[in-house]
Amino acid sequence: MIINNKLIFGSGLSSCKDYNGLLEVCRTALSNSIVHFDTAPSYRTEAVLSSAVRDSAKELGLSREDYAIQTKIDPIQMYNGNVEEYFKSKLKEMQLDYVEVLLIHWPVFNYLMDTWVSMNKLKDLGLVKHIGICNLRISHLEELKKQGIIPEVLQIERHPLNTFEREVHFCKDNGIILQDYSPLCKMHPRIKNNAEVQQIAEKYGCNVGQIILKWHIDTGAVPVFTSTKPSRIVEYAKLGNFSLTNDEIRQISSLNCNHKLYLESLICPGF
Q1: CA gap 150, 143 in Å, rounded
Q2: pLDDT tens across 232-264, in order?
Q3: Could you tell me the CATH number of the domain that includes residue 114?
Q4: pTM for this entry
């Protein structure tokens, strides 16, 4: 399973939480070639998302190799230790033999090295295909590289109001797959009502949300989006084969104002 697909469906704070709701959106996603799904212990969707994806795939005649699931290690698991045993029990709960990606959700640096070692052991056992970290800034990436740690995947909050250019370049230079969560910034008025963005959308016969997702893709990232509406999932799946021009990318990136939707955790020094 290739993990750098164009779109990832996330089951975070704004997603459906019940089986029937997730079944409908997962079926719609898979039917429209969105085959990569994101969850975490703190989302409380790991088991139900896994069931919804598995049942949707079976209904559509797809095999386990046709879709990808990624989850995370939260700070409480890092603090408690025994990450390997914890994750093996989590796989049983999710009724999976493996996940494609396992991420450290919040990099609590006092426990990061031990957790990273455990995740590598899980990878060696074939229980995880790829490992990575969420919510790192450039200073952390550079420091970890000095210690010989280069994550395969980096997931951060990124959107036109916070473009993280240095992190983007670091990922490109070091072969890291960049995943952007909250890619639409909840359709902030500075994005939704921007005249230039609206003009770009009109040019390509798209809406603003589609153009912003295309911006993520054309700047080298994989957006992790969510929706409770199947129609919206279909809409985002149909981004078209066009690419934004360099000028259009610069126009959208010029909206950057270092705005963040979510305050970084106080337990992660340096954020």
Answers
A1: 10
A2: 999 999 988 899 999 999 999 999 999 988 876
A3: 3.20.20.100
A4: 0.95
- 117-138 burial by CB neighbour count: b if 16+ within 10 A, else e? ebbeebbeeebbbbbbbbbbbe
* Residue 189, domain extent: 8-253
- Counting the structural domains of the chain, the total is 1
Please name the residue that has the structure tokens 């790192």: 136
